[in-house]
């Protein structure tokens, strides 16, 4: 069976990764002052600079169902099946849109997957699926590996301004929490596919230290780990944090990624995150 791998733009994979592993992308869009822009058509730096002068915050939208249909129609000419991996269904309707298309083909199977998360953590599933598909693994075998990834996958992040998440409705219980969180830097994470407050921390520096402690707990378990630092137009700060992590945990494999326009719409400029999972490529 020849399997295609599709994801959406919020996995924030590079063009080189997509070309190397034959990964297809469906772009989400940002709506900036009534202009709809696919996030693959605007750089994060340009986006965050533009937001500074906007009176209202941008919003985001999922790929149109017609765009997805066109892609799957094209893939059906070459492939027997497609695994389509998307950001959390609690953040976007993208997964459900793809799911609604999964039964319309007779000889071409669509297997939608809700990663329950986003950004480079979502990308872990995509890259592993693409590698396995190229090596001839079955859909069932790939989904079994997804279960393995979920067991060790962790993601924590800190934002400079919770207003973005609250106004966009992406922070669970955000309105109730906002008043008590204005003067602190809470650590956020995903729980049941939703963004929630993990711990309330007084400063960003202490919040990053706490995330380092959480990473150390998994490092001590002894399995190989890939860790990715993610930033929202804060590359200098992200690189500095990576150097700290490399000194503390030199055996890990490190990668750098970013919060693009769609996710950046909800997190705001300056957000920093760290995600990690068992490094399956080391075996």
From TrEMBL:
Entry-linked Gene3D superfamilies: 3.30.1180.10, 3.40.50.10170
UniProt-listed InterPro entries: DegV (IPR003797), DegV_C (IPR043168), DegV_domain_contain (IPR050270)
Cited Pfam families: DegV
Keywords for the protein's UniProt record, in alphabetical order: Lipid-binding
Signal peptide (residue range): none
UniProt-recorded Gene Ontology molecular function terms: lipid binding
Superkingdom, natural source: Bacteria
Record bears the keyword 4Fe-4S: no
PROSITE patterns: DEGV
Function field: May bind long-chain fatty acids, such as palmitate, and may play a role in lipid transport or fatty acid metabolism.
Name of the protein in question: EDD domain protein, DegV family
Biological classification of the source: Bacteria, Bacillati, Bacillota, Bacilli, Lactobacillales
């Amino acid at each position: 069976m020849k399997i295609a791998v599709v994801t959406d733009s919020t996995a924030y994979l590079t063009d080189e990764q997509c070309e190397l592993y034959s990964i297809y992308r469906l772009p989400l869009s940002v709506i900036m002052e009534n202009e709809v822009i696919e996030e693959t058509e605007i750089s994060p730096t340009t986006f965050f600079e533009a937001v500074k002068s906007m009176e209202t915050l941008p919003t985001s939208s999922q790929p149109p169902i017609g765009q997805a249909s066109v892609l799957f129609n094209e893939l059906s000419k070459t492939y027997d099946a497609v695994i389509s991996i998307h950001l959390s269904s609690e953040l976007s309707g993208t997964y459900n849109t793809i799911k609604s298309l999964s039964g319309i083909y007779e000889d071409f199977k669509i297997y939608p997957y809700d990663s329950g998360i986003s950004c480079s953590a979502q990308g872990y599933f995509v890259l592993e699926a693409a590698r396995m598909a190229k090596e001839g693994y079955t859909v069932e075998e790939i989904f079994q590996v997804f279960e393995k990834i979920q067991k060790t996958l962790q993601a924590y992040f800190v934002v400079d301004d919770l207003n973005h998440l609250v106004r966009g409705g992406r922070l669970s219980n955000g309105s109730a929490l906002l008043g008590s969180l204005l003067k602190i830097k809470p650590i956020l994470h995903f729980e049941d596919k939703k963004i929630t407050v993990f711990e309330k921390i007084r400063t960003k520096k202490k919040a990053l230290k706490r995330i380092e402690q959480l990473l150390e707990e998994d490092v001590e378990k002894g399995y190989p780990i890939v860790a990715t630092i993610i930033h929202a137009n804060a590359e200098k700060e992200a690189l500095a944090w990576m150097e700290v992590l490399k000194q503390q945990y030199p055996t890990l494999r490190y990668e750098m990624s970013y919060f693009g326009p769609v996710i950046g719409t909800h997190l705001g400029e300056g957000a920093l995150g760290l995600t990690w999972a068992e490094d399956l490529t080391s075996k």
